[in-house]
Design brief:
39% of the residues lie in helices and 28% in strands. By secondary structure, it is α/β, with parallel strands linked by helices. The chain has a single domain, classed as Trna Endonuclease, Chain: A, domain 1, CATH 3.40.1350. Strands 1-2-3-4-6-5 form a six-stranded mixed β-sheet, sandwiched between helices. α1 runs antiparallel to α3 and α3 packs parallel to α5. It starts with a helix and ends with a helix.
């Protein structure tokens, strides 16, 4: 856990992971941790949150070495492609879209879209690859 994640848990009065699991903010906590780890691992030139007036959104829009990378966080064991992701792919002309999730294996969801375990991102950052 990062200091910001630990601070959130302390402010919510959640002393243990078990207490967090049943809390309505567990998804926000997981996503916040994921955003921090992805930013540390990918070290983008620029990073943004993106949303449209019609409700489509993307958790992270990254620019790195001239490439457009979208990142969506899904605290699900089986993430799938959503309408928002399709809109972001087309409207933003993304080179790649990563759907970061708490699972254990990488797998394609569509052309240019891959489900990526958060643990793999953390491990790659920790090993320096």
């Amino acid at each position: 856990m990062t200091p910001l994640t630990l601070l959130l848990h302390a402010l919510l009065g959640l002393p243990s992971f078990r207490d967090l699991e049943g809390h309505p903010k567990v998804g926000a906590s997981w996503e916040g941790y994921g955003v921090e780890e992805v930013l540390k691992a990918l070290r983008p030139d620029e990073a943004y949150y993106w949303a449209t007036h019609n409700g489509a959104e993307l958790d992270l829009l990254l620019f790195r070495d001239g490439r457009r990378i979208g990142v969506e966080f899904k605290r699900s064991s089986a993430p799938s492609l959503t309408p928002s992701m399709r809109i972001a792919l087309n409207d933003l002309k993304l080179d790649q879209l990563m759907v970061v999730y708490p699972g254990e294996r990488r797998f394609p969801l569509a052309e240019k879209v891959e489900a990526v375990p958060l643990a793999a991102i953390v491990a790659a950052r920790s090993s320096g690859t």
